[in-house]
Structures are given as C-alpha cells and as structure tokens.
Write a structure and sequence with these properties.
The protein contains 21 helices and 21 strands. It is of the alpha+beta class.
Length: 624
C-alpha cells in the first residue's frame, strides 16, 4: 500500500502529462501482480466499495479526536481524506519496537514524494524525448524505486522493500489485501478493519487508503491516461488497450501478461460488451475559422440520455441484448420494452428518448423512466421508450470503430433499415454548406428539418467525415454546439469550499431568487453550481465570500444577501423540474455560473414566479 500511496501522492503534485505517464509506467513496470492491476483499476474507476462511505470515516475520526477540532480542521483543509490522514492519532502500540521490526523513522508528509520525483525527473529522459527519436518505449529509471530496488521486484509485494518493512509497525497492508478485504468484508466489520489499517499506515498511506475506499481519488488522472501508461509498458497503441478493455476485469493479469509478451492478446468472449464511448468538445465561436464545413457532417443533438444498445450471439447462437449508459452501466432491466427490438447483432450508439404519437418529448418526460428498479406495464404504456441511432460501432461480428464516420453512417442506415423496428430510428443529418447556414439551422431547428420535434433539440453535433470512433474526447473530431441555455439572475446565498485543487477556495455556490414571504420579499434557494466561472472569477467570488460572511454552519458560509447588499450571479441552465426537497419547489438541470453581475443590486434579481411559469410549460408535456 505504501508504494501505491507514494504513486498517488506524486501524481497529485505533478502537473505535467508526460511526467505522469512516466510515473505510472514506472509503477506498472516495477510493481508485481496483482497490486499493479488493482492500482490500474483504481485509477480507471473500476473499483467501488459499497459500505465505505464518507459518513463512516467521519465517525471513525470523531471517536479518536475532538469533534470540534476536527470540524475546524476539516473546514480549513477542505478535503476529508487529507484531514483524517493528518489528524489520525498514532496508535499506542506503535510507540515501541517489535521483535524483527525496528522503530520506524518519522513518516514523510504528503508532498515529499512529489519533491523527490521532481528532483529525479530532472535527470531522466521524458516521454517527448523518446518520441522525438521515433521510439515509444518508456524504459526510464523509475522514481518510485529507490537505489538498489529497481528491476526484479515483480513477483514479490511492492511494499516489502527494506524501506517499507521498517516504515511501519506492524507492516502495512498491501493494496491487494485492502481491495480483497473490502470486497468481502461485511458492513459491521468494516469500521474496525479501517481503524487497524489507519493505525498501521503513515500519513500518506492513510490519505491514499481513504481516497481509495471512498472512490474520491481526484488526482488529475483520467482513465484514458492510465490505460495509455499501461499500453506503454508493452509499446502498444493505447487504442489497442481501449478496444479490449470491456472484456477485462481487475486485477488484469491477462492484460499485463500480453503487454509483457508472456501471453496472447486477450479476447473478449462477452457476446454483448460495452464499448468505451467517444465524446465531443464544446465548440467556441473562435474555432470555426480553422474548420472547413465540407469536412463535417451535422446532426441534431437530442435532449435525452446517451446509451449504447448492443446485441450479439452467444456460443449456442442465441441473441443476448443489453442496454448500457454512457459510463458502461448495464441499464437493461430499466427498459425491458426496448430489449425485444434489439434483434440483430450489432452495437448502436444513440439517444434514449420518449416518443408519443411520433413526437420526441422533453427530458422532463424521459425522467419518469430513469432509475426505475420496477417498471410497471402502466409506466411502459404512458412513457414509451425509443432509441434514436446516430452511430454503428459493430455490425454482427465486425468491429466498425476504426472506419471513418461517413462509412459508419452508411452502414448504420442499412442496419436500421434491416432492423425495421418502430422503437428504433435513425437520427437525421442537418444539411448545410456554410457555417452561416448551420448557425441559422441551430437557431431555428423547426425550419431546418426538426419540425415538431424542435423543442427536443438541444443543439447541433459536428462530426468529421473521416473520424474513427475513438474512446475519450479526442481533439478536433467531434464538436457539440448547444442551443443557448435559459438564463436568470440569482443572488448568492451560501458558499462552501470545493474539493481537490479547490479545497482552499469557496467554489460551491447556492443561489436563490425572490418570492413573497410573510414579512415581505425573501430569497429562496433554487440551485447550486460549482463551475462555469474562470479562475480569476473564482478568486473574486472567494474574496467576496470571506469578506461578507455573516454566519457559519460547519463548512458552509452564510453570505450577506439583502436588497442592496450581495452578489448577483447570472446562472445558465438547461431546464427545470419540480422538487419537493427544495423550499422553492423547483430544481435546475445543469446550472452553471455564466457571469458575475457586480453592476446589479440583489433586489433586481429574478423572481420565483418566472421559474414557475417556465416549469408549468415543461410540466404540461408530462401529462399524457
């Protein structure tokens, strides 16, 4: 666990992508199975432990320290895992030496590993140096391995180095021990086990353990980057790893065996696997100058949820059909009415919608079918599900992802025609010859082919004709151009510190609008946002919060909000829905801060009645 903790610590403090790749590949090279596989699983979000919740961690630290002191410390640090790691008291039995285990040296504080890494990286060759020489190998000295420990450590636990053995009394758990124990441990046994581990680990180890068990790594590593580092271990193209990834499972023994040349490339035997999705970048006005309209195909961006519908034949020739969310979650059980429509082997990338009498309904209507564990015949009848297809990733046993989009689109048209099912149709393309023409279509979808479905159009998608289907968010391949969002002026009411890199700033904001109260107009909260602003604006709001706090409720700051005193935020959002959990009775969809209105007094902010009118218009669509 110490080696994994040191890796996370250095990654958290390392801003450079190439250096992160070097650290990751060095770890995968020097650490043996199955520890490195579980590390890869943690970095790609493939691990989850249902009983390890933040509330449990708070209970553990409350039993070991003064709750008031912890509350003040947590408010200052802003990160639960780091606060607990810093405050966890030294176990009583750690104050003496044990036979065979000398007293450990003082534990390093978080960040020391990063400093050692930075010093070492100055004398090592970077990834870009290798690429400039036409080489892709990352065979560089690993900063995670001390002198005399490099190479040959595979096959023995990474934490059993001489340093690790003397670092804690008793020896700390391995990453594999932590993962396998958490997977099998019952809810009642978990607190005592976590306490034992926290006693055995040093400060950095405790921080890494808590980040791992709560699923809140947030160290600036994407799943794509972690897979790229693993691919570099065997000089493989990251795309190869992405293609076989859906058929792999932690601790990825077959993957590492292939990467190291000890086994054949893994084959996915699942007849209906999920394929990692391709995502689009939001396009800005300045981007169009560098783009040629002839290189792109445009289609409507529908206001539904992204899904992947997959069907394949098992060993007996029977069709297996599944529906996946964009993150790979199997949601087949929530939509039993769509499964019979997936009769042909293939993989469709599309949008899940509700259709009534041939018309696409709003997202609010679709929400009546989402996250349902029990789907009644009445629900199926009142909210008929529909799949609108816009890409074909597989046709029977043929993987189409490396084909250009224009060719995949032609294959999709044929596939949908052969499928011939009323619940699945083709997403129409948008004809345009210039960016001005596409701008006009985006502004008026009804006149550009969307017809009566125009209200369900969220914007326009642009896809390069020659683009292969690449997992992640590759630059310049797909663009999303959303329609202008709803805008209101709201008043900042409460602020809370963020997490990760924002843990020192008040970056989570609750805002409200005016409504009539018993004593006159009063503000009621209508939403919470933590993005949309620039770094400079974050500093401005943080400064305002610190100077205008009137009350404190744990980590929450009550900010002055009166008719003539306060900060008005211009808030953009995609839609509204009724919410009994909020005093205002409404909740926003995808709210974000679009502008700071320093020029506007709070009394001129919007009223709840404005949102109520919008809500009534949307709610009317839900009625059958």
């Amino acid at each position: 666990m110490n080696r994994f903790a040191e890796l996370l610590d250095r990654l958290a403090y390392e801003p450079g992508r190439n250096n992160k790749l070097r650290l990751l590949t060095g770890y995968f090279r020097e650490v043996g199975d199955p520890d490195r596989g579980y590390a890869l699983a943690a970095l790609t979000g493939a691990l989850s432990f249902k009983h390890a919740k933040p509330a449990l961690i708070r209970d553990l630290i409350a039993a070991r320290t003064d709750p008031v002191l912890f509350g003040l410390s947590y408010d200052y640090v802003g990160d639960l895992s780091e606060t607990v790691a810093l405050m966890w008291p030294k176990a009583q039995n750690n104050s003496q030496s044990f036979p065979g285990h000398p007293s450990p040296p003082p534990s390093p504080t978080r960040g020391e590993g990063a400093q050692r890494s930075a010093a070492l990286s100055a004398s090592t060759i970077s990834l870009s140096d290798f690429q400039s020489e036409g080489r892709t190998s990352l065979s560089v000295p690993s900063p995670l391995v001390g002198e005399g420990q490099g190479g040959g450590s595979r096959g023995r636990d990474a934490d059993e180095s001489p340093h690790a053995r003397n670092h804690n009394n008793p020896p700390p758990p391995t990453l594999t021990e932590v993962v396998t124990t958490l997977r099998t441990l019952g809810k009642t046994e978990l607190p005592k086990q976590l306490e034992r581990w926290l006693d055995e680990l040093d400060e950095t180890g405790r921080w890494a353990l808590l980040k791992l068990v709560t699923g809140a790594l947030r160290i600036g590593i994407s799943a794509r980057l972690a897979k790229t580092a693993a691919a570099a271990l065997g000089d493989k193209d990251p795309h190869e790893v992405e293609l076989i990834w859906p058929g792999l499972a932690p601790p990825y023994l077959d993957l590492f065996a292939w990467l190291e040349g000890r086994a054949e490339k893994p084959v996915n035997r699942d007849p209906a696997p999920f394929r990692p999705v391709m995502l689009a970048h939001a396009i800005e006005d300045s981007d169009f100058a560098a783009l040629d309209p002839a290189d792109y195909i445009a289609e409507w961006k529908w206001d539904g949820i992204r899904v992947q519908a997959v069907a394949g034949r098992d060993d007996r020739g029977h069709i297996t059909a599944r529906l996946y969310s964009r993150t790979g979650e199997d949601i087949t059980g929530s939509f039993p009415d769509l499964v019979p429509s997936l009769r042909l082997p293939g993989a469709i990338d599309g949008e899940l919608l509700i259709l009534r009498e041939g018309r696409v309904q709003s997202f609010n209507v679709l929400q009546q079918r989402l996250n349902r564990k029990v789907v009644s015949p009445k629900l199926i009848k009142e909210f008929p599900i529909h799949l609108r297809a816009y890409d074909l990733l597989g046709d029977d046993e043929n993987d189409l992802r490396e084909l250009p989009f224009a060719e995949r689109r032609e294959r999709l048209e044929t596939f949908i025609k052969n499928l011939d099912d009323p619940r699945i149709d083709l997403s129409p393309t948008v004809a345009f010859a210039s960016w001005d023409a596409l701008t006009a279509a985006r502004a008026d979808p009804a006149s550009a082919g969307a017809g009566e479905d125009a209200d369900a159009v969220e914007g326009v998608m642009l896809k390069r004709r020659d683009a292969p289907y690449l997992p992640g968010r590759p630059k310049g391949q797909w663009w999303k151009w959303k329609r202008d969002p709803h805008i209101i002026d709201a008043v900042l009411m409460y602020a809370q510190r963020g997490h990760g890199k924002r843990s020192s700033f008040y970056s989570d904001y609750t805002f409200g609008v005016w409504t009539a109260g018993e004593g006159g107009d009063e503000l009621v909260p209508v939403g919470k946002a933590y993005f949309g602003f620039t770094d400079e604006e974050l500093l401005q709001i943080d400064r305002f919060v610190r100077r205008n706090t009137t009350e404190k409720f744990g980590p929450v700051r009550h900010v002055v909000h009166e008719g003539d005193k306060g900060l008005v935020l211009e808030v953009a959002f995609e839609g509204l829905q009724r919410s009994p959990r909020h005093k205002s009775g409404v909740a926003m969809r995808f709210p974000r801060i679009s502008r700071l209105r320093w020029d506007k007094p709070p009394r001129e902010a919007d009223r709840l009645e404005t949102l109520e009118r919008m809500l009534k218009a949307e709610a009317a669509e839900i009625e059958v």
